[in-house]
Design goal:
about 5% helix; mainly beta; Neuraminidase; five-stranded antiparallel sheet; about 325 residues
């Protein structure tokens, strides 16, 4: 999994600097598949020694989304909009490449694909930085016209969360989430639901490793975070996702040595004991309003991550 991927990028951003382009500069037209090395062969269930395992009777067997969403590169960190027709994800052409090279390849970052007439269309790059300036963006969460995303970018120390607003057909007004969230509360990757911000963090007073917490937005301020003890363990519990109606919390936890997807139900006053849904190199769940589950599955060979795909498990 990529728990520390964005943390590693802070060194790359701090070490590199590119002068911003003139105001009339345009974003480059990029083809992500051109950057995938020829020695990477597309993986799939038929060649996967560790395919994901479905533990729930509510869902069909998981399968990778078809091309052009998935390629021989690494598609990661999915986020599906409630209608099930818009999918954001992080892409990098080669998981073996260090972050400082990914930062410069023009294709590593956030992409989006739209489903039309039942088929996923060619993904497009989502630019969240000015042309010519360095940034490595990912971990998208969208609610209405508000986007949250993680970014290692010039002008900021380390990895931070930012927001953007959907304006005139583009994500604009990229704004630092603020020291209250980043330095005091110490949020990690987030999910926004109404005015509640769910996030994982290894902040003090947790149960160990990453825990899932929630803070509430009141005008321009955020409340002191609450540890959601019902779902946390001494091990890693992270990458939360809340269903649109607020009745389900989905997240990632290590199970039998690899990441797995768990679910907890809101019982009218607390979250239920989590149940395992999908195991074996599965994580970062996201759902549409029909209850269909999307998650990332990583392929490993000889202990080395070589590829990642977005998988779907449709509700029966």
């Amino acid at each position: 999994m990529k728990n520390d991927r964005f943390l590693m990028l802070m060194l790359a951003v701090a070490a590199l600097f590119v002068v911003g382009c003139k105001e009339d500069a345009f974003y480059p037209v990029v083809d992500r598949e051109e950057k995938i090395p020829e020695d990477i062969v597309k993986r799939g269930p038929e060649t996967d020694p560790n395919p994901p395992i479905m533990h729930s009777q509510e869902y069909e067997a998981p399968a990778p989304l078809p091309y052009p969403v998935n390629t021989a590169g690494a598609e990661d960190s999915p986020f599906i909009l409630p209608d099930g027709n818009t999918l954001y994800f992080f892409f990098t052409p080669d998981m073996r490449v260090p972050p400082e090279e990914q930062l410069l390849d023009e294709v590593t970052g956030v992409w989006v694909s739209h489903r039309e007439n039942g088929a996923w269309r060619d993904p497009a790059r989502v630019w969240l930085q000015e042309p010519g300036k360095l940034a490595l963006d990912g971990a998208v969460c969208v609610q209405g016209d508000e986007m949250w995303f993680a970014s290692a970018r010039e002008g900021y120390a380390g990895v931070n969360m930012f927001t953007a607003t959907w304006t005139d057909g583009k994500w604009r007004n990229w704004t630092y989430a603020g020291d209250r969230l980043m330095r005091e509360i110490r949020i990690g990757e987030v999910h926004i639901h109404d005015n509640d911000l769910y996030f994982h963090s290894d902040r003090a007073d947790g149960m160990g490793n990453y825990d899932i917490w929630v803070t509430t937005r009141a005008e321009s301020d955020w409340s002191d975070p609450i540890n959601i003890a019902a779902v946390n363990t001494p091990d890693m519990d992270g990458f939360p996702f809340i269903s649109s109606d607020g009745s389900e919390m989905w997240f990632t936890r290590v199970y039998q040595g690899t990441p797995a997807v768990f679910r907890s139900l809101w019982m009218g006053g607390n979250w239920s004991e989590p149940e395992i849904i999908v195991s074996r190199f599965a994580g970062e769940p996201t759902l549409d309003d029909a209850g269909n589950l999307y998650f990332v599955h990583h392929y490993y060979e000889n202990g080395v991550g070589i590829e990642a795909d977005i998988y779907a498990a449709y509700r029966k």
